[in-house]
Amino acid sequence: MKILITGSAGFIGFHLANRLAARGEEVVGIDILNDYYDVNLKLNRLREAGFEAMDFQYNTPAVSGKYPNYRFVKLALEDHEALHALLERERFDAVCNLAAQAGVRYSITNPRAYIDSNIVGFANLIEACRHTGVRHLAYASSSSVYGLNENMPFSTSDNVDHPISLYAASKKSNELMAHTYSHLFGLPTTGLRFFTVYGPWGRPDMALFLFTKAILENQPIQVYNHGDMVRDFTYIDDIVEGVVRVLDHPPAGNPDWSGKAPNPASSKAPYKIYNIGNNNPIRLLDFVSAIEQNLGKTAKKEFLPMQPGDVAATYAEVSDLVRDLGYKPETMVKEGIAAFVKWYREYYKN
Question: How many CB atoms neighbour CB 322 within 10 A?
C-alpha cells in the first residue's frame, strides 16, 4: 500500500512509520515539527528513521537513507491547499492521522491550538481524502473522550457526550466528522481511542518521562489526586500492532445497526471505533514503584489534588478488537517500563 502518516515525527507516528516502511509499504510522513515539546526529540526520531539532513524545507520531500520507500514532508494540516495537493499528487491507498495538538492540561490555557490542529486540520485532511480516492482513513481518537463516564471498563458502545477538556471534545468532534463523511461519501473511517501510550521515544509531557527524569535528577515527582488514580497503560509496540491491523482491515457497514438503538461504535456506513488499551488498569503508585525498581532509586513524592480535565481512572474494554482483528494488547507494564528506562538512559547518556 501507499500510506500517508500525519504526525510522523511524533511518538506514535515515528514508530508506525518505521514499522510500515520495514514491512515494505510506500510511506509518506508529514509533520509540522512544532515546539509543543522539545523539537530536537522529534528531529532525532526522524534521524533514527534514516533522515540525515535536519534542515527540512517546507512542503519539500526528503527521502530516508534507511528506508528508501519512506519520504518525509514538513507540512501543516492547516495548510489546506498544500495538503490537498499532496494527496492529489500521491493518491494514497490509506491515511493514518496521528497529527494533533496533544495534552489535556495544555488545552485549558491554549484552546486555539486545538481548534486549528485537531478540528480545522482534521477537516482539511478528511476533505482531501474524500476527493482523492483514499480507501481508508484511520485516525487517533483518545480515551479522554469518555469524560465523566464512570462505567468500567470503558466500552465503545458507551455514550461519550460529556468530555471534560477541549482536547477530548476535539477528539470527539473527529469521530463525528468521520461518521458524517462515511455516511455521505462512503469513505471508510476507523477511530482509535488510545489509552495512555508509553514506551521508548515517548513524549516528555507524559507521566513515565516526567517521573523518570525527576527521579534521576533527585527532584520530587508530582502525584495527582494524592495517588488515587488508575490508568490503562498501553505499550507503544501494542499500539502500533493494533494500528497496523486496523489499516489492513477497512470497515464495512454494520447491517445489524439500528437507529432505534444506535451503537456509537459502528454504523450502517463504513465507520468503526476501537479502543486500543491494555485492558489491565494499573494503580498510579504501582506504576511509580515499577519505575523506582528499574532506576534503583526511590522517588520523592509531592501529592497534589486532581488537575482540571483529568479523570481518576481509565480502563479499556477491547472485546471488539479481539473479535474483529484477533488482537489484544498484552505487554506487561514492568516489561514496558524497563524498555523505556533503557532507552532513556542511552538517549540522555544518564
Answer: 11
C-alpha distance from residue 42 to each of 33, 53, 281, 337 (Å): 7, 13, 29, 21
Q: Which of the four pLDDT bands, split at 50, 70 and 90, describes residue 350?
A: low
Taking each helix axis as running N to C, give the angle between helix 121-131 and helix 80-90, from 0 to 180 degrees, rounded to the nearest 10: 30
Q: What's the Rg (C-alpha) of the chain?
A: 20
For the segment 134-145, the average pLDDT, to the nearest whole number, is: 97
Check if 181 is active-site: no
Selected catalytic residue, list 167, 181, 198, 235: 167
| DSSP annotation of 226 | G
Examine the pLDDT at 53 and tell me if it is beyond 80: no
| Closest residue by Cα to residue 94 from 244, 300, 273 | 244
Residue 310, pLDDT above cutoff 90: no
Residues 286-304 have a mean pLDDT of 95
**What are the tens digits of pLDDT across the range 171-191?**
999 999 999 999 999 999 999
DSSP string, 109-142: H-HHHHIIIIIIHHHHHHHHHHHTT-SEEEEEEE
